[in-house]
Protein backbone atom coordinates (compact mmCIF):
# COMPACT_ATOMS: atom_id res chain seq x y z
CA UNK A 1 0.00 0.00 0.00
CA UNK A 2 1.46 3.35 -1.01
CA UNK A 3 -0.43 5.15 1.70
CA UNK A 4 1.78 3.87 4.53
CA UNK A 5 4.93 4.82 2.66
CA UNK A 6 3.75 8.37 2.06
CA UNK A 7 2.44 8.82 5.60
CA UNK A 8 5.83 7.97 7.10
CA UNK A 9 6.75 11.63 6.70
CA UNK A 10 3.76 12.78 8.74
CA UNK A 11 4.10 13.28 12.45
CA UNK A 12 1.34 13.67 15.02
CA UNK A 13 0.58 17.09 16.50
CA UNK A 14 1.30 16.09 20.07
CA UNK A 15 1.05 18.71 22.84
CA UNK A 16 4.22 19.44 24.81
CA UNK A 17 4.54 19.49 28.58
CA UNK A 18 4.04 22.81 30.31
CA UNK A 19 1.57 22.46 32.42
CA UNK A 20 0.02 20.23 29.45
CA UNK A 21 -3.04 21.18 27.74
CA UNK A 22 -1.88 24.83 27.42
CA UNK A 23 0.60 23.86 24.72
CA UNK A 24 -2.10 22.04 22.81
CA UNK A 25 -4.38 25.07 23.06
CA UNK A 26 -1.69 27.44 21.78
CA UNK A 27 -0.65 25.46 18.68
CA UNK A 28 -0.81 28.00 15.84
CA UNK A 29 -1.80 25.36 13.26
CA UNK A 30 -5.12 24.42 14.85
CA UNK A 31 -8.14 25.90 13.03
CA UNK A 32 -11.86 25.26 12.52
CA UNK A 33 -14.07 23.97 9.75
CA UNK A 34 -17.82 24.57 9.96
CA UNK A 35 -20.76 23.06 8.11
CA UNK A 36 -24.09 24.84 8.50
CA UNK A 37 -27.55 25.18 7.06
CA UNK A 38 -30.94 26.36 8.28
CA UNK A 39 -31.50 23.17 10.29
CA UNK A 40 -28.06 22.25 11.66
CA UNK A 41 -24.55 23.47 12.32
CA UNK A 42 -21.35 21.49 12.97
CA UNK A 43 -17.91 22.76 13.91
CA UNK A 44 -14.74 20.64 13.87
CA UNK A 45 -11.05 21.18 14.51
CA UNK A 46 -8.79 20.90 11.49
CA UNK A 47 -5.06 20.93 10.80
CA UNK A 48 -3.97 23.02 7.77
CA UNK A 49 -1.52 21.30 5.42
CA UNK A 50 2.12 22.31 5.60
CA UNK A 51 2.23 22.81 1.86
CA UNK A 52 0.26 25.07 -0.43
CA UNK A 53 -1.37 28.40 0.55
CA UNK A 54 -2.99 29.04 3.91
CA UNK A 55 -6.54 30.22 4.43
CA UNK A 56 -6.70 34.01 4.79
CA UNK A 57 -7.66 35.85 7.95
CA UNK A 58 -11.29 36.18 6.77
CA UNK A 59 -11.62 32.47 6.04
CA UNK A 60 -13.30 30.99 2.97
CA UNK A 61 -16.75 29.50 2.43
CA UNK A 62 -18.13 27.33 -0.34
CA UNK A 63 -20.16 24.29 -1.24
CA UNK A 64 -18.89 20.87 -0.17
CA UNK A 65 -19.13 17.59 -2.08
CA UNK A 66 -17.55 14.18 -1.64
CA UNK A 67 -14.84 13.11 -4.07
CA UNK A 68 -15.47 10.33 -6.56
CA UNK A 69 -13.44 8.17 -6.17
CA UNK A 70 -13.45 8.81 -2.40
CA UNK A 71 -9.66 8.72 -1.94
CA UNK A 72 -8.94 10.88 -5.03
CA UNK A 73 -5.95 8.74 -6.01
CA UNK A 74 -7.32 8.90 -9.57
CA UNK A 75 -8.77 11.93 -11.36
CA UNK A 76 -11.92 13.17 -9.62
CA UNK A 77 -14.97 12.63 -11.81
CA UNK A 78 -17.14 15.45 -10.49
CA UNK A 79 -15.95 18.92 -11.45
CA UNK A 80 -15.72 21.68 -8.91
CA UNK A 81 -16.41 24.38 -11.47
CA UNK A 82 -17.86 27.53 -9.93
CA UNK A 83 -21.52 28.39 -10.38
CA UNK A 84 -21.07 32.12 -10.51
CA UNK A 85 -18.55 34.79 -9.64
CA UNK A 86 -17.14 34.54 -6.14
CA UNK A 87 -18.70 31.13 -5.42
CA UNK A 88 -16.33 28.43 -4.29
CA UNK A 89 -16.49 24.64 -4.14
CA UNK A 90 -14.66 22.31 -1.73
CA UNK A 91 -14.08 18.58 -2.09
CA UNK A 92 -14.09 16.00 0.73
CA UNK A 93 -11.44 13.29 0.30
CA UNK A 94 -10.76 10.14 2.33
CA UNK A 95 -7.23 9.41 3.48
CA UNK A 96 -5.42 6.37 2.05
CA UNK A 97 -3.75 4.68 -0.95
CA UNK A 98 -1.82 7.77 -2.13
CA UNK A 99 -0.03 10.79 -0.76
CA UNK A 100 -1.69 13.88 0.66
CA UNK A 101 0.00 15.95 -2.02
CA UNK A 102 -1.47 13.74 -4.75
CA UNK A 103 -4.98 14.13 -3.34
CA UNK A 104 -4.69 17.93 -3.22
CA UNK A 105 -3.33 18.08 -6.77
CA UNK A 106 -6.25 15.94 -7.96
CA UNK A 107 -8.70 18.32 -6.26
CA UNK A 108 -7.01 21.32 -7.83
CA UNK A 109 -7.01 19.71 -11.26
CA UNK A 110 -10.75 19.04 -10.92
CA UNK A 111 -11.37 22.74 -10.31
CA UNK A 112 -12.04 22.76 -6.57
CA UNK A 113 -11.02 25.71 -4.42
CA UNK A 114 -10.01 23.72 -1.33
CA UNK A 115 -9.48 20.11 -0.28
CA UNK A 116 -10.74 18.64 3.00
CA UNK A 117 -9.01 15.33 3.76
CA UNK A 118 -10.41 13.17 6.56
CA UNK A 119 -8.72 10.34 8.45
CA UNK A 120 -9.66 6.72 7.81
CA UNK A 121 -8.99 5.74 11.43
CA UNK A 122 -10.25 7.28 14.66
CA UNK A 123 -7.27 8.86 16.44
CA UNK A 124 -6.85 11.27 19.33
CA UNK A 125 -4.85 13.84 17.34
CA UNK A 126 -4.76 15.31 13.84
CA UNK A 127 -1.94 15.14 11.32
CA UNK A 128 -0.18 17.99 9.59
CA UNK A 129 -0.16 16.95 5.96
CA UNK A 130 3.22 17.41 4.23
CA UNK A 131 4.14 17.65 0.58
CA UNK A 132 5.67 19.81 -2.13
CA UNK A 133 4.03 23.22 -2.46
CA UNK A 134 5.24 23.84 -6.01
CA UNK A 135 2.32 24.29 -8.37
CA UNK A 136 -0.33 24.03 -5.64
CA UNK A 137 -2.52 27.10 -5.24
CA UNK A 138 -5.50 25.79 -3.22
CA UNK A 139 -5.51 25.33 0.57
CA UNK A 140 -5.95 21.91 2.16
CA UNK A 141 -6.94 20.85 5.66
CA UNK A 142 -7.04 17.56 7.57
CA UNK A 143 -9.91 16.54 9.87
CA UNK A 144 -10.74 13.51 11.99
CA UNK A 145 -12.65 10.45 10.79
CA UNK A 146 -15.71 11.45 12.76
CA UNK A 147 -15.65 14.96 11.30
CA UNK A 148 -15.21 13.61 7.77
CA UNK A 149 -18.09 11.16 8.07
CA UNK A 150 -20.34 13.90 9.46
CA UNK A 151 -19.39 16.31 6.69
CA UNK A 152 -19.99 13.62 4.08
CA UNK A 153 -23.39 12.75 5.53
CA UNK A 154 -24.78 16.27 5.83
CA UNK A 155 -23.05 18.15 3.00
CA UNK A 156 -25.58 19.09 0.29
CA UNK A 157 -23.41 20.93 -2.20
CA UNK A 158 -25.08 24.25 -1.40
CA UNK A 159 -23.35 27.60 -1.76
CA UNK A 160 -21.36 28.73 1.31
CA UNK A 161 -22.52 25.81 3.44
CA UNK A 162 -18.95 24.95 4.52
CA UNK A 163 -16.49 27.49 5.94
CA UNK A 164 -12.80 27.07 6.72
CA UNK A 165 -11.48 29.60 9.21
CA UNK A 166 -7.96 30.91 9.55
CA UNK A 167 -5.79 29.38 12.25
CA UNK A 168 -5.22 32.87 13.72
CA UNK A 169 -8.85 34.00 13.52
CA UNK A 170 -11.64 32.29 15.43
CA UNK A 171 -9.32 30.23 17.55
CA UNK A 172 -7.75 33.34 19.07
CA UNK A 173 -10.63 33.85 21.49
CA UNK A 174 -10.62 30.17 22.42
CA UNK A 175 -6.88 30.25 23.07
CA UNK A 176 -7.26 33.34 25.27
CA UNK A 177 -10.08 31.78 27.28
CA UNK A 178 -8.26 28.46 27.69
CA UNK A 179 -5.08 30.26 28.74
CA UNK A 180 -6.95 32.29 31.34
CA UNK A 181 -8.77 29.22 32.67
CA UNK A 182 -5.48 27.34 32.84
CA UNK A 183 -3.87 30.17 34.78
CA UNK A 184 -6.78 30.24 37.23
CA UNK A 185 -6.55 26.45 37.67
CA UNK A 186 -2.79 26.58 38.31
CA UNK A 187 -3.15 29.42 40.84
CA UNK A 188 -6.02 27.56 42.56
CA UNK A 189 -3.97 24.37 42.81
CA UNK A 190 -0.98 26.23 44.25
CA UNK A 191 -3.17 28.13 46.70
CA UNK A 192 -4.85 24.91 47.82
CA UNK A 193 -1.49 23.23 48.27
CA UNK A 194 -0.09 26.09 50.35
CA UNK A 195 -3.26 26.34 52.42
CA UNK A 196 -3.26 22.58 53.13
CA UNK A 197 0.45 22.68 53.94
CA UNK A 198 0.04 25.56 56.38
CA UNK A 199 -2.94 23.88 58.04
CA UNK A 200 -0.96 20.67 58.37
CA UNK A 201 2.04 22.45 59.86
CA UNK A 202 -0.18 24.39 62.23
CA UNK A 203 -2.01 21.26 63.28
CA UNK A 204 1.28 19.43 63.67
CA UNK A 205 2.62 22.25 65.82
CA UNK A 206 -0.45 22.21 68.07
CA UNK A 207 -0.63 18.43 68.35
CA UNK A 208 3.09 18.07 68.92
CA UNK A 209 3.83 21.05 71.09
CA UNK A 210 7.13 20.38 72.90
CA UNK A 211 6.53 19.07 76.43
CA UNK A 212 8.12 20.89 79.30
CA UNK A 213 9.44 20.09 82.74
CA UNK A 214 7.45 21.31 85.69
CA UNK A 215 9.03 24.16 87.59
CA UNK A 216 9.28 22.33 90.90
CA UNK A 217 11.17 19.49 89.17
CA UNK A 218 13.62 21.92 87.59
CA UNK A 219 14.27 23.59 90.94
CA UNK A 220 15.42 20.25 92.35
CA UNK A 221 18.32 20.11 89.89
CA UNK A 222 21.64 21.10 91.51
CA UNK A 223 23.07 24.61 91.20
CA UNK A 224 26.43 26.18 91.95
CA UNK A 225 28.17 29.53 91.66
CA UNK A 226 30.69 29.75 88.84
CA UNK A 227 34.33 30.29 89.77
CA UNK A 228 36.81 31.04 87.02
CA UNK A 229 39.99 28.88 86.89
CA UNK A 230 43.00 30.44 88.58
CA UNK A 231 45.57 29.09 86.13
CA UNK A 232 46.78 31.72 83.67
CA UNK A 233 47.62 28.96 81.19
CA UNK A 234 43.93 28.08 80.76
CA UNK A 235 42.92 30.45 77.97
CA UNK A 236 39.66 28.64 77.25
CA UNK A 237 36.69 30.71 78.38
CA UNK A 238 33.59 28.72 79.24
CA UNK A 239 30.24 30.00 77.96
CA UNK A 240 26.57 29.12 78.26
CA UNK A 241 25.44 27.12 75.22
CA UNK A 242 22.00 28.77 75.32
CA UNK A 243 22.74 32.49 75.52
CA UNK A 244 26.37 32.14 74.33
CA UNK A 245 27.55 34.53 77.06
CA UNK A 246 30.77 33.76 78.93
CA UNK A 247 30.47 32.70 82.54
CA UNK A 248 31.51 35.30 85.08
CA UNK A 249 32.53 34.72 88.65
CA UNK A 250 29.48 34.31 90.81
CA UNK A 251 27.07 33.41 87.98
CA UNK A 252 24.58 30.76 89.12
CA UNK A 253 24.82 27.61 86.99
CA UNK A 254 22.32 24.78 86.80
CA UNK A 255 23.75 21.24 86.41
CA UNK A 256 21.82 18.66 84.40
CA UNK A 257 22.08 14.89 84.97
CA UNK A 258 24.20 14.63 81.82
CA UNK A 259 26.87 16.81 83.53
CA UNK A 260 26.30 19.77 81.22
CA UNK A 261 25.76 23.13 82.89
CA UNK A 262 24.13 26.38 81.85
CA UNK A 263 23.16 29.74 83.29
CA UNK A 264 20.44 28.98 85.78
CA UNK A 265 18.01 31.49 84.25
CA UNK A 266 18.68 30.18 80.73
CA UNK A 267 18.21 26.47 81.39
CA UNK A 268 15.23 27.02 83.69
CA UNK A 269 13.43 28.92 80.93
CA UNK A 270 14.36 26.25 78.40
CA UNK A 271 13.11 23.32 80.48
CA UNK A 272 9.88 24.96 81.63
CA UNK A 273 8.86 26.40 78.25
CA UNK A 274 10.50 24.60 75.32
CA UNK A 275 11.79 21.12 75.97
CA UNK A 276 12.67 18.31 78.34
CA UNK A 277 16.15 17.56 77.03
CA UNK A 278 19.64 18.95 77.29
CA UNK A 279 20.29 21.53 74.53
CA UNK A 280 23.76 20.01 73.96
CA UNK A 281 23.47 16.21 74.11
CA UNK A 282 19.65 15.93 73.81
CA UNK A 283 19.45 13.62 76.83
CA UNK A 284 15.96 13.70 78.35
CA UNK A 285 15.99 15.36 81.75
CA UNK A 286 12.80 13.67 82.91
CA UNK A 287 13.96 10.17 81.99
CA UNK A 288 17.26 10.79 83.75
Automatic annotation (TrEMBL):
- What reaction does this enzyme carry out catalytically? S-ubiquitinyl-[E2 ubiquitin-conjugating enzyme]-L-cysteine + [acceptor protein]-L-lysine = [E2 ubiquitin-conjugating enzyme]-L-cysteine + N(6)-ubiquitinyl-[acceptor protein]-L-lysine
User: Transmembrane residues, as ranges?
Assistant: 172-196
Topology in the membrane? Single-pass type I membrane protein
Q: What is this protein called?
A: RING-type E3 ubiquitin transferase
Domain RING-type, first and last residues per copy: 240-282
> What SUPFAM superfamilies does the record tag this protein with?
PA domain (SSF52025), RING/U-box (SSF57850)
Q: Name one GO molecular function term.
A: zinc ion binding
One term under GO cellular component:
endomembrane system
A Gene Ontology biological process in which this protein takes part is: ubiquitin-dependent protein catabolic process
Amino acid sequence: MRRRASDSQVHAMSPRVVLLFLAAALRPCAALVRLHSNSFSFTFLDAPARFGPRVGSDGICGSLRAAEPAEACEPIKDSGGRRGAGRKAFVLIARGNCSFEGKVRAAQKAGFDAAVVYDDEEKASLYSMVGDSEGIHIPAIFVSKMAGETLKKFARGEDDECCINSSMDETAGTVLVMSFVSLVVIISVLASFLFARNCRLLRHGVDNHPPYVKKHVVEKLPCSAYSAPCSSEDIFQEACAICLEDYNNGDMLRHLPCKHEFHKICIDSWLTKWGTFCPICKLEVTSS
